[in-house]
Amino acid sequence: MSDGLSDALGGNYFGSRKTKFYQYRITNDYITSLRENEIFVFGSNTKGRHGKGAAKTSLKWGSIYGQGIGIQGQTYAIPTKDDELKVLPTDKIQIFVDEFINFAIKNKNKIFLVTSIGTGLSGYSPSDIAPLFKKSKHISNIHLPKNFWEHI
User: What angle do CA 81, 47, 145 make, to 5 degrees?
Assistant: First the structure.
């Protein structure tokens, strides 16, 4: 028996709601360009030394070397390391993630493409970091990596 909505969406909508819920809000693994309204969200250190990983990539979209927190050009920095490049505990990262979520709520005209922050140079797993973004689950302008959605 068809429910109409499932047919229109091309699958069993009601049987796999979680999959359908976020399928259009997945950040690509490799972001090479941004549209005018898109913001590249990356993991940084509080000192703003954007020398490796996604932080280095962020420089091409206006991140500011020496600024490790918040909006910069078409980027947004969420610290996962401190001034001495030591990994921050997740409770400290949570504070920065919450600030980011509040910023995204106030800027609905922007699409925030969150990279897999904390899972590269900081050494956390997606299961460690993804739950920090749980409050963003229903915020339509925040896109997360697929491996984060799997842990929310």
Answer: 45
Strands annotated E in the chain: 26-27, 38-45, 70-72, 75-81, 111-114, 142-145
Q: 37-149 is classed in which CATH architecture?
A: 3-Layer(aba) Sandwich (3.40)
pLDDT in tens, the chain (152 residues): 334 433 344 444 344 444 456 778 999 989 999 999 999 999 999 999 999 999 999 999 999 999 999 999 999 999 999 999 999 999 999 999 999 999 999 999 999 999 999 999 899 999 999 999 999 999 999 999 999 999 99
115: closest CA among 49, 65, 52? Answer: 52
Looking up tokens 């689950």 gives 137
Nearest one of 100, 88, 110, 91 to 136, comparing CA atoms: 100
CA angle 148, 149, 152 (to 5 degrees): 90
Can you give the pTM of this predicted structure? 0.85
Q: Coil, strand or helix: which one is 65?
A: coil
| Domain spans, the chain | 37-149
